[in-house]
Amino acid sequence: MSNTTDDRLAPILNELKLDLISKNHIVENASKRKEIARTFISDTITVPTADMYAYATLATLGDDVYYEPSTAALEAHIAKITGKEAGLFVSSGTLSNQLALRSHLLQPPYSVLLDNRAHINKYEAGGAAFHSGAQTIAIEPANQHHLTLEEIKNNIIISSDVHFAPTEVVALENTLNGTIMPQDEILRISEYVHSVGIKFHLDGARIWHVAVETGTPLKELCEPFDSVSVCFSKGLGAPVGSCLVGTKDLITKARRFRKLFGGGMRQTGVLAACAAYSLSHNLPQLVRVHALTKRLEAGLEEIGVKILSRAETCMVFYDPSSVGVTYDEIAQRGSAHPEPLILGGSRLVVHIQTSEEAVEDFLSIVRQLAQEKKDAGFVPTDDAAAGAFKDVYVRRAAKIPK
Ligand SMILES: Cc1ncc(COP(=O)(O)O)c(C=O)c1O
What we know:
The protein has helices at 3-16, 25-37, 50-56, 69-82, 93-104, 119-122, 127-132, 149-155, 183-195, 207-214, 218-222, 248-260, 269-282, 286-303, 327-336, 356-375; strands spanning 86-90, 111-115, 135-139, 167-173, 199-204, 227-231, 242-246, 306-309, 315-319, 347-349. Helices cover 44% and strands 12% of the residues. The strands form 2 sheets. Strands 1-7-6-5-4-2-3 form a 7-stranded mixed sheet, sandwiched between helices. Strands 8-9-10 form a 3-stranded antiparallel sheet, covered by helices on one side. The chain is an alpha/beta fold. The protein folds into 2 domains: 62-266, Type I PLP-dependent aspartate aminotransferase-like (Major domain) (Aspartate Aminotransferase, domain 2), CATH 3.40.640.10; 286-389, Aspartate Aminotransferase, domain 1, CATH 3.90.1150.10. Pyridoxal-5'-phosphate binds next to helix 5.
């Protein structure tokens, strides 16, 4: 290259350069880790540890749209432990669920039957309608915990009446809001759904928690389903990734749809290695996570706070109006604490990076506020929270400091 070309190119290259590593990155990241240990809004906020990163750098270097060995090894492992023929590594739980629906469903009109609180129903931006042209039939479980076979039977559409969109997929979520769906009910539903030729999908973003809490092998939990989506980026603490498992045919189709949706990724070895690391090193920590969630629940009950949804795994939902306190008051005290706590509404999520100190600080804040209300004359009533039970998830936008 001549000097003249160098001279012309230098400013262009200079303009494109970027160094995004902050001079203070060590201090800033240490403070971010501290913040994460005190954040109760979700388990998706967990971050990779230095050991996870170190392991990831040893992964293979393939292009996953062609073939990436570490990613293929992860897919094969997830297929094996869930008892399915094949797996597909994808960027998110939403993509995984949507690919499952798109691959099961062939020719509209059709409907997908699910719990009204399910992620696929509420938080996937209407993806079932957008990607698959599917109507969703969302049922509110009468027991406020899980759908029953009777509710499925009462709402499923198996009809030649042209007014209706026949149900072609029933989708469950386990855990849902951190609660565990009884396996015997899943088996009853599976037997029925399959007897009428309908596909059965599980959003198992947090199925790991069920395996750990109930001591049930993953294969047994997944056996009733035709497809299962699992996530590494939530309770397991990997930075990115989910895996869809099912028959070879289903996964071949899903692989093509993944490309069509723009979800084909390239050097995914590092991500697959983070997922593998999370299975080996983070999954066992869920035992501590569940114990800490139960501690949170017990502490709230001691104060007299109403529990809306029990701490079966890593979440507990509460209503402080039973002691005259609002979510906003708690959140404000939390953010004013010398070591701030980050809180949403009714949902408290404990994760592998939650500190015991954060749980105790949270309980102290609620205890203190409850005492102040009592001193000001608030008289707790039994029915203070009765109306809130219907939708346990009261969302309150948490302010996460930059
Ligand atoms: C039960 C459940 N399924 C699916 C998802 C979607 O995962 P993602 O955020 O990776 O798209 C979530 C997200 O939190 C979830 O909680």
